[in-house]
Amino acid sequence: MVAIKTSGVDAFLAKPQAGVFAVLIYGPDSGLVSERCERLAARALEGSDDPFALVRLEGDDLASDPGRLADEARTIALFGGKRVIRVRVGGRAMVLAAEGLLSGPEPESLVILEAGDLKKNNPLRALCEKSPRAAALPCFPDEAGARDRLIDEETREAGLSISPDARALLAAHLGPDRLAARGEVRKLCLYAMDKGRIDADDVEAVVADAGDVGMDVAIDAAFAGRAADMTAALRALRAGGMPPSVVAGGALRHALTLHRLRGDVDAARSARAVMEANGFLFHFRRKAAVERALGAWTNERLGEAVTKLADAVAAGRKAGAIGEAVAERALLAIAIEAGRLMR
């Protein structure tokens, strides 16, 4: 089985390929990984009322007892029917367990391996990508199209319509984690249930909450060159449980948006005119700060900021406390650069 491309994951989940009985679902978006594991398991167990049909195992335990995975997968269900073995891949290598499963007779069970971000040369990922009896499904943070599909799914389920301005504002405020984003949209649908339609005011009232505004304060301070304000906001966010790498991720999305809008400024439009046309992308409290940043930052400098922040976000995901320090330094560097540009 070749590796499934990101664009083909939903199609595979809707109709898994015959002969595939082990599915590795991995990626940096843990919410999306979990959601897709749930979706695949629910599809496999559809119509089953056996409470023991779903078995959960820890990958670290299987690393110590590699034969257990194959034994569990080939165990016949007590009441007949399909079983699903869901394994949370941990820090210890469980390649031997997966090899034992894939090299033996085809089991009655579907095995779902739930993992974090795995590099291309990761042995478990490589094994599942090469085996005709396995599939590897990547889960990366939602892009605009995926966020739109999520919004469509939830609003359709709730029987609600959504205005174009509300949709754009909602998509701009949703974070990269799929489960968290879905929770925000469901909360919004519940709020607007009696209206039948979601408007921009509803999004501002429900989704743009204090946590989002708090992160926006740090980001706007960084892009305005107010290093002291940015540092203070970052300290407050960290005390509330939000690490610098998350703020760096928000700053990266903001820099990408500014980079796109700056193209309109370079095409002989004023920053104010561009903001008037795209103001729905930002909370009303932020518009003045964003307009000033849009006028000061050049396309070249924004491109450099995007690269710096992308590297910081990657470091934050991989290097723990060191990565958080890298993210904080990147945000400070953005603030220092902005201070020069704002003079």
TrEMBL record:
Catalysed reaction equations from the record: DNA(n) + a 2'-deoxyribonucleoside 5'-triphosphate = DNA(n+1) + diphosphate
Molecular functions per Gene Ontology: DNA binding; DNA-directed DNA polymerase activity
Residues making up the signal peptide according to the UniProt record: none
Superkingdom, taxonomy of origin: Bacteria
Any single biological process term in GO: DNA-templated DNA replication
Top EC class of this enzyme: transferase
Transmembrane annotation, as ranges: none
Keyword line: DNA replication, DNA-directed DNA polymerase, Nucleotidyltransferase, Transferase
Gene3D superfamilies: 1.10.8.60, 1.20.272.10, P-loop containing nucleotide triphosphate hydrolases
Catalytic activity, EC: 2.7.7.7
InterPro entries the record matches: DNA_pol3_clamp-load_cplx_C, DNA_polIII_delta, P-loop_NTPase
SUPFAM superfamilies per UniProt: P-loop containing nucleoside triphosphate hydrolases (SSF52540), post-AAA+ oligomerization domain-like (SSF48019)
PANTHER family, alphabetized: DNA POLYMERASE III SUBUNIT DELTA
Family of the protein in this entry: Belongs to the DNA polymerase HolA subunit family.
Protein name according to UniProt: DNA-directed DNA polymerase
Gene of this entry: holA
